């Protein structure tokens, strides 16, 4: 297994195999990529683009893919996934990011949600295609990822929503088709608590069964603006890491704002001495790899 830090600030915490930097987030804010970090780019979720071009927002029969439309679980505004200027600009941007870092991990490379997008351009493209609605959406997403693959020379990882069953209907995301272009998938499992690890382990098992490329998961540790009372406890994070490792995943990323928050997390996990011992009995190699990582932190970081 590999372990990564997943951060908003260009800072590398010790004790991880790699570092993923959020160079363009869903709110549209961009920072420069770092040569020795991987880069995380959200494509269509982009508050800056939708502020400058309100007419680009993805449409649906139950309203636009905008913050506040509670028909959808989105906390940002999302550009229509066929918007040609945005697509072209993002292709160039992703190529630049790839050239200046170790590779690109993509978020939001798909349609916003069920029923999106019903703008006049999408309606016309769909009708011209002669395909069913779902097949047309799937083709749009897959073809765009194929174009991105041509621009990305380093590693290309696709970050997907934690829904192993309805991804085609909701997002136009076909895991089998996209596996042809992706070096790996990252299932984003952000939650502000992991009180019941059973569900996350089950999701990991489901994805591991269907994804035809290596699979990471991302866990939520401490986000920008969070209070210590807002976030998962160290015991929850340690337990869920072990339980998902047992499902056969290939790596885990831990999201924090900066490297100091990662460091605080590492210290808190190291202090879970009794739980670390209990979890030794939870299974074979992958479980031991998580626990060995923490033993290594204990040795190297204190
Ligand atoms: Zn559209």
Describe the structure.
The protein has helices at residues 47-52, 84-99, 120-129, 133-151, 167-171, 175-178, 197-210, 234-246, 259-270, 273-279, 285-301; strands at residues 2-7, 18-24, 38-42, 103-107, 155-160, 184-188, 215-222, 251-256. By secondary structure, it is an alpha/beta fold. It has one domain (2-301): Glycosidases (TIM Barrel). Strands 1-2-3-4-5-6-7-8 form an eight-stranded parallel beta barrel, surrounded by four helices. α7 (197-210) packs parallel to α8.
Q: Note the beta-strand portion.
A: 15-25%
Distance between the termini: 23 Å
Helix content class: 40-55%
Tell me the name of the CATH homologous superfamily.
Glycosidases
Number of domains: 1
Q: Please state how the strands of the largest beta sheet are arranged side by side.
A: 1-2-3-4-5-6-7-8
Q: For the record, what CATH class applies?
A: Alpha Beta
Can you write the helix and strand succession as a string?
Answer: EEEHHEHHEHHEHEHEHHH
Named once each, the bound ligands are: zinc ion
Largest sheet: 8 strands, parallel, barrel
CATH topology: TIM Barrel
Give me the Rg, rounded. Answer: 19 Å
Q: Based on DSSP secondary structure assignment, what is the total number of beta strands? A: 8
User: How many helices?
Assistant: 11
Mean pLDDT, all residues: 96
The CATH architecture can be named as Alpha-Beta Barrel
Structural class: alpha/beta
